[in-house]
Design brief:
about 240 residues
Amino acid sequence: MELNELLAELESLGSPSIKKVLVNQGAPEPIWGVKIGDMKPLLKKIKNDQELALKLYDTGISDAMYLAGLAADGSKMSKETLQKWVEKASWEMISEYTVPWVAAESPFAFELALQWIESEQESIASTGWCLLAGLAALKQDNEIDLSLYSSLLKRVENKISSSQNRVKYCMNSFVIATGAGISDLTAEAMQVAQNIGTITVNVGNTACKVPFAPDYLKKIMDMGKIGAKKKTLKC
């Protein structure tokens, strides 16, 4: 399938009402407002076409960038390409979902995550924390440096209140993901969650709320899902 053909089909699926919602959430132009469910038939057509996925992301069109993330194989991407992706991410749907989902498949995932959380650019630091959260949910515990994650929990506890807006949101998600995904760190994550308490984040013109980490973790405990791992972060 050629890029122009795919873009035309993708644009035809756009919805003005969905676009309005996404713009209210911070999405910049260009965006067509394609429902994620409506992308899935296209995804089947381009599955395993890595070159086309990379071209889609390079368009800068939000819908195309999201579809690119679903189609791309992060294990085949270089550090340089993943760095390009994180720098090009245009808003939180891409920086906090698409890029970390793809980067989590890379052998450079932990390295890049630790690099990105040090960035002064809010979107890149947010991606780093979301990637670390995703790895806690994806990787087996023997693949994770537990001492590193323990130190990161302490860092969140000490730094979250003074961090940038979206970074705070993603740090909070990291605490939840670590407690839920790594059973040896559940008690520590719960303690950190209780210590940081309610996190205030400006979510713009949306009804989104910041999860209260202690309650969220308790629900996961009550469901008996502590330590459950995902096969993929993409959805």
